[in-house]
Amino acid sequence: MAYWEYSSFPPYVSAAEKRKRAAAAIKRLQKQAGKKGRGPEPVVIEGRAIARTFWGKAWCDNLESYADFAYRLERGRSYVRAGAVVDLKIDAGKIEARVSGTELYEVAVSITKLKPARWKILAGTCGGRVGSLVGLLRGELPDEVMRAVTDRKQGLFPEPRQIDMDCSCPDVAGVCKHVGATLYGVGARLDARPELLFHLRGVDPQELIEQATEDLAAAGQGAPAALAGDDLGALFGIELAADAAPVVPAPKRARKKKR
């Protein structure tokens, strides 16, 4: 066992060394995957900002708003900026990552599915306004919708009690630096693929279109051409995953014991 595992202060590792380790880890994973396997999906951060769009920033802001997380996330930021999250996959109810450090660590995070009643309220607020519907995944939200989506109790983002985390590293803290880097990596990934947040929480943004159509019909108006089709990706101007897996409960993993 390394001497620092008895201490709260592990040896300092420079950003350059972290990047070097990460690059080597990505090459190993690519080699292991081969031509037919599913290769690693690293998180790439350009510059200092981890997230630049509404959805990415809102995810990170939500994490930092909880005292349970905030004091443990700082080291995670330095890891994700250095490219240490060499593989990140987001699925229904779960996040899986491999993070480069002294070794290559396995991180698993499970997220509770959004309750139907909570999603119904959100769908009514967001989907009921055509302007907000078209701009939803682009992050072009009216103040009313933005407040609803980011509300800590009734919004789309998870609370600490809805997040279960596990890492293969020796750190017994609930949010180690590898978990922190993974959580920030999700924010960076949402910049390019905001629809993954809906998939992660187990809800379908297509229901927003249905809600908007119903509201327009009730008001005696026909649905706009943009809402008449079923091409959600074209509507939002982004590429949606065509082979998204069905929502299934995330497997239970043992929680780390806190001292």
SSE topology sketch:
Elements: H1 15-33, H2 54-64, H3 67-81, E1 85-91, E2 94-100, E3 104-111, H4 116-127, H5 130-135, H6 143-150, E4 163-167, H7 177-192, H8 195-200, H9 206-218, H10 225-228, H11 232-236
Antiparallel strand pairs: 1-2, 2-3, 3-4
Helix pairs in contact: 2-7, 3-7, 4-9
Fold and architecture overview:
The chain is α+β, with helices and mostly antiparallel strands and about 260 residues long. Helix content is about 45%, strand content about 10%. The chain has eleven helices and four strands, in the order αααβββαααβααααα. Helix 2 packs antiparallel against helix 7 and helix 3 crosses helix 7. The protein starts with 14 loop residues before the first helix and ends in a 23-residue tail after the last helix.
Quickly list its features.
259 residues, alpha+beta, four-stranded antiparallel sheet, 11 helices, 4 strands, 44% helix, globular, disordered N terminus, disordered C terminus
